[in-house]
Amino acid sequence: MSQPCRLPAGGRIDRGTLLAFRFNGRHYEGHQGDTLASALLANGVSVIARSWKYHRPRGIVASGVEEPNAVVQLETGARTVPNARATEVELYDGLVAASVNAWPSVDFDVMAVTGLFARFMPAGFYYKTFMWPQSFWMKYEHLIRKASGLGTSPTEPDPDHYDKMNAHCDVLVVGGGPAGLAAAWSAGKSGARVILADEQSEFGGSLLAHRDLAAVAIDPASDGSIDGATPMVWVARTVANLKAMPEVRLLPRSTAFGYHDHNFLTIAERLTDHVPPGQRRGPRERVWRVRAKQVVLATGASERPLVFGNNDRPGVMLASAVSTFVNRYGVRPGARAVVFTNNDSAYRTALCLAAAGIDVAAVVDPRPAPAGELPGRVRKAGIEVIGGAAVVDTRGRKRVSAVDVMALDAKGTVAGPVRTLACDLLAVSGGWNPVVNLHAQAGGKPKYEAAKACFVPGTPVQAERSAGAANGSFALGACLAEGVAAGEEAARLAGFGAAGASWAPTVVDVDEEPIVPLWAVAPREGIGRGPKQFVDLQNDVGAADILLAAREGYQLLELAKRYTALGFGTDQGKLGNINAMAILARALGNDIASTGTTTFRPNYTPVTFGAIAGRDLGERFEPVRKTALHAWHEERGALFENVGQWKRPWYFPKAGEAIHDAVGRECRAVRNGVGIMDASTLGKIDIQGPDAATFLDWVYTNAWTKLGVGRCRYGLMLDENGMVMDDGVTTRLGENHFLMTTTTGGAARVMAWLERWLQTEWPELRVYLTSVTDQWATAAVAGPASREVVQAVCAGIDFSPAAFPFMACREGAAAGVPARVMRISFSGELAFEVNVCANDARHVWEALMAAGAAHGITPYGTETMHVLRAEKGFIIVGQDTDGSVTPVDLGMDRVIARGKDFIGRRSLARAGTTGDDRKQWVGLLTEDPMEVLPEGGQVVADARAPVPVPMLGHVTSSYFSANLGRSIALGLVKGGRKRMGEGVEVPLADGRTLRARVASPVFFDPEGVRQNV
Ligand SMILES: Cc1cc2nc3c(=O)[nH]c(=O)nc-3n(C[C@H](O)[C@H](O)[C@H](O)COP(=O)(O)OP(=O)(O)OC[C@H]3O[C@@H](n4cnc5c(N)ncnc54)[C@H](O)[C@@H]3O)c2cc1C
What we know:
This protein has 1013 residues and is an alpha+beta fold. The protein is 21% helix and 27% strand. The chain folds into seven domains: 14-147, Ubiquitin-like (UB roll); 162-301 and 434-493, 3-Layer(bba) Sandwich (FAD/NAD(P)-binding domain); 305-430, FAD/NAD(P)-binding domain; 524-590, BFD-like [2Fe-2S]-binding domain (Arc Repressor Mutant, subunit A); 624-681 and 774-860, Probable tRNA modification gtpase trme, domain 1 (Gyrase A, domain 2); 683-772, Alpha-Beta Plaits (2-Layer Sandwich); 876-890 and 904-999, Elongation Factor Tu (Ef-tu), domain 3 (Beta Barrel), CATH 2.40.30.110. It has 22 helices and 48 strands. α7 (345-355) runs parallel beside α8 and α11 (543-551) crosses α12 (557-564). The longest helix has 18 residues, at 476-493. The protein starts with 13 loop residues before the first strand and ends in a 14-residue tail after the last strand. It binds flavin-adenine dinucleotide.
């Protein structure tokens, strides 16, 4: 019979639409509106997966994102999705899914044999077992890696495409249950721009799983009705109202997965996953990058499981999931149920099961005498309530066939005779956990509320507030009222006044009796002896594992988590973590509040790589950056080289010229006349604020506070280890205003580095950084004739040496547009850098070319720049340094200020970073001046020494210098400065060995006369 476990009526499924699907190769049918999980349950499939470590049979436990077991491989080939949760996969016609972690089948899994040795494989088993012999580790690692993980990644390129969208709003509401809908409505009616995102296919949240009051003929004015209407009538009305508001955007199937600084949230919207693959049109997913002025978190609560013997057997489900499958999907998850709960909410499950015609054997409740309204109704329905008792074990093979119930004494220990209740469904509820993930990601610290036995949001750090079940307010009336208030407050703080009257919902809530926490049922056989009591179903972590971790010294929650694998995996401990915290706290004699939670990190639920990548694939993966002068360079036949993401002119060959001809010509032009280079790619960071000079003092090795306005200074930046990470010239434009230049390739890294220090270590500094690399174009005019050229083009600047000295900056106009001119030099020649707005680059560049024509102005590229700077012994960070070089190694002690602190300072005094024997940067002159050493070539004392030949260092830069008429090289050589004049050898790949002499790294104009004219 098709769908033997489908109830004859009810649910939000379209019974008129049959959908065919395959699971583990077998054909089944379901309905539009089903999830894969509900359709499998409707077809009586109870074993969906095998557990990760012990390969135990596992069934569906939950009904939403918190599902730990029912993880499936969805579809095949290029569209295969690993680790899809069956509870989240919307059913479509032709869907194909399979179990994971089972061979040859989920019903008969060979690896289930590991379960027999479970006792010998506790937490830490891998760490303790695979230690000997040490050399075998690589083999063990291979096997362990093979055994780990669940699904299989696709091997073919993804045929779908994905989008990204940036959005700004006044109020972002996350969660579209009653609290979220009420919040969106109250914020929306004020005129604020509102986004409402909910991860489910329909709005309504938990209301989607309420009993259909109309269908079961319960007085709609009594329990769970809203303003006298059934909840879903209210939902439909509210959604229609929201749709009519022009400033409100509704995003169903959209999960807010990250809450970052400055109220920046990321939302993954699933656009076509619910459509058969062949019929999908448009992007599959879209990531929304939302910057919200105010946020309302109405993310609801997830139900907690209970920890007892064999609590992982298929047929053990969360009570709310049971209600959801019955009420929302019209599924009969079992024929005879037992409910095990320590709070009143699961009594609703007993009632809904009974209303659906499903036999309820009993409700087992550890509270001695459950006497509230809901237990009363359950008793009235003829269902036995067994108070002061707990389920201690389940029986059955691949599905629950019975549960063992024992009384609990005053100390919470199980005692007395065992009563066995036959059932094939056990609905459990250990209470509710507000979904505080996003609040915690935003910086809030959840606090433990003992009366509710759960963590609730703490004080918000960002502009957010929580409402409804996410805030620990579980009653429907409270959810709605909090939603209204939160929406109104958020809109007001975003600058919108109330529009229209507020709304006070009429809801008749049933008073619930207080919960009595029960984190783990004490096993009758003693800890670790009886059946496994699972805390984390996805990672097969049991209560005994947590206790073992505590005994072995992993007493901090974060350590116990890592030791046991608790909360790893796709569900990130959504179900089990809090029980584990409580078990650990009790074992250590602590309270839960002080044990605290583990860290909630993005992503809230898994996000596909496709969604993260969006359209940034192939050519768009890394953008190509071109300067504003790129077209001019192309027109002049420049060849380009990649520097970071930039295309920089490498050299400008004339007809018939090879690279060394062109570079030789360009070099001679700069030394003898004038050259011009596009230096626009240098990173430029505008630094402003009263503490800007102090900030520079801390990030550069030299001193900045006394630098005069209008002056420039070279700076060297170190990392924490004292190693050179970047350099550049920084100009003081005003008392509190500097312009830093960085290396072309290092700009983004330096910007992030500076921001990191400002934001995390020195937040008290009043300093603001803006990247202006793209905004300014820079023409470097270098050579003895450069002054004539720039002064012919610039106005308002006195270029006389006295008025405009070396390392100074002047503002004026260049070819009629505002310009900043710096007198700095990377070639050792008299030189000026003319900076103008990038839009004016070509106009100014052409004016400079015209003015320089009489002097034979020659455009030059990066190769010439490299040769000229090497002649002068100027470093290129990243070429002459490699992250292991200190300023002292470079012979740049002069730029280390003595009397101040800076990043990396202490590391320069460490034993490993001092001493004469470190590799030092020196010049290398080949015996044969026409031979050019290869860059990267190894420097040795004697190339014929026995192998392995001791290495002295390597060549970092090497060129033929047309100006010097010989080759020059720079290299890092052990104790290099002590070796001045000594001979070294550089073996070549072709078998030859070149001999060279260690020399000063400055080959040309060592006194620096030429740049000071
Ligand atoms: C099965 C069941 C039956 C119930 N029956 C009754 C009843 O009969 N009477 C009664 O008074 N109360 C009942 N309740 C309780 C009541 O429904 C809830 O207390 C109430 O719905 C909570 O409202 P909420 O808006 O705070 O959260 P929810 O209704 O749970 O809504 C939260 C929404 O946020 C979504 N969400 C969470 N995180 C994200 C994210 N990161 N991104 C996007 N979306 C997210 C969730 O999927 C959900 O749709 C029942 C609850 C359940 C679960």
